[in-house]
Design a protein that fits this description.
The complex is a heterodimer.
Chain A lengths: L3 E2 L4 E5 L4 E7 L6 E7 L6 E7 L4 E4 L2 E6 L4 E6 L8 E8 L8 E2 L3 E6 L1
Chain B lengths: L4 E3 L2 E4 L5 E6 L6 E8 L3 E9 L2 E5 L6 E5 L5 E5 L8 E8 L8 E2 L3 E5 L1
Parallel strand pairs in B: 2-11
Antiparallel strand pairs in B: 1-3, 3-8, 4-5, 4-9, 5-6, 7-8, 9-10, 9-11
The chains are: A mainly beta, B mainly beta.
Chain lengths: ~110, ~110
């Protein structure tokens, strides 16, 4: 039972264009969502997060949008840079005393110069 | 400040053997979580320790166990290794105050032959 789904295993975009990574979830108890970026041979690095009480959070080139009714969130990267090429993981937490993160399987983003 | 340190970085073991992985969290972080990353399943939660007590556990067999010491360092043990245990094992530490407080180590790559 995959509670967090990233349906696109890979995405390729041109440098300077927008990258949109999508994530769907099924568990209504999730109230906090995070995006992590992972380079090969390194651990995931926290990128940006959003609470379920918000529908948008922005940090520089990165914006996360949350649509609770659709149980869908997306990460927008504008403009995309070659250094953004990595695997992006969507993760969710049910909050409270539960500090477990449920991850999607990741999307490999390739930004071409 | 020093990040999350995992040792060893690489490990090759034979089926049936057991293995112990180590994780030193960021100074001051008392929560340590372990995740298994495989190509097919993404990142899956193993367990979380806080103040030397297991607080959460994922859906893994009893062959996977862990512990946490008084200095917050944690070890993960896998007994009777199977080929399917080959994976990247990631440790994450946090203050256990916010979900976005997770900092991951670079992981231990375990190969079972």
């Amino acid at each position: 039972d995959q509670q967090v789904k990233q349906n696109s295993p890979s995405l390729s975009v041109q440098e300077g264009r927008i990258s949109i990574l999508n994530c769907d979830y099924t568990n209504s108890m999730f109230d906090y969502f995070l995006w992590y970026k992972k380079y090969p041979a390194e651990g995931p690095t926290f990128l940006i997060s959003i609470s379920s009480i918000k529908d948008k959070n922005e940090d520089g080139r990165f914006t996360v949008f949350l649509n609770k009714s659709a149980k869908h969130l997306s990460l927008h990267i504008v403009p995309s840079q070659p250094g953004d090429s990595a695997v992006y993981f969507c993760a969710a937490s049910a909050g409270g005393s539960n500090y477990k993160l449920t991850f999607g399987k990741g999307t490999l983003l390739t930004v071409n110069p | 400040k020093a990040g999350v340190t995992q040792t060893p970085r690489y490990l090759i073991k034979t089926r049936g053997q057991q293995v112990t992985l180590s994780c030193s969290p960021i100074s001051g972080h008392r929560s340590v979580s372990w995740y298994q990353q495989t190509p097919g399943q993404g990142l899956q939660f193993l367990f979380e320790y806080f103040s030397e007590t297991q607080r959460n556990k994922g859906n893994f067999p009893g062959r996977f166990s862990g512990r946490q010491f008084s200095n917050s360092r944690s070890e993960m043990n896998v007994s009777t290794l199977e080929l399917g245990d080959s994976a990247l094992y990631l440790c994450a530490s946090s203050l256990r105050t916010e979900p976005y407080g997770y900092t991951f180590g670079s992981g231990t790559r375990l190969t079972v032959v």
